[in-house]
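Q: Sequence in, structure out?
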Amino acid sequence: QVQLVESGGGLVQAGGSLTLSCAASGRTFRYYTMVWFRQAPGKEREFVARISPSGGDSNYVDSVKGRFTISRDNAKNTVYLSMNNLRPEDTAVYYCATNDRSYWGQGTQVTVSS
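A: Exactly. Output:
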């Protein structure tokens, strides 16, 4: 069983930065590939970034490449999403999840004003 709790969302101006955190419970966190998704109003949930269990491999949706960085600290059972040069189109609820989608956090709102 893994419980995920996101934090770090908020309101930021275009061009600004935010770092989201996803704190996990359970001893098995270190074995999971972790994923960030987002869902904008009226749109389907979309993949944002993925990181391997060791943190050595990651991949991103094209729209965030070069601006977002996913990382993890297995000692702290936490995965992060560092977001730079934010755009209004990044506005969404951001969720972390295990790659198999068995476990999800409750989401954190990110709003980027123009």
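Residues 34 and 99 are 5 Å apart (CA to CA).
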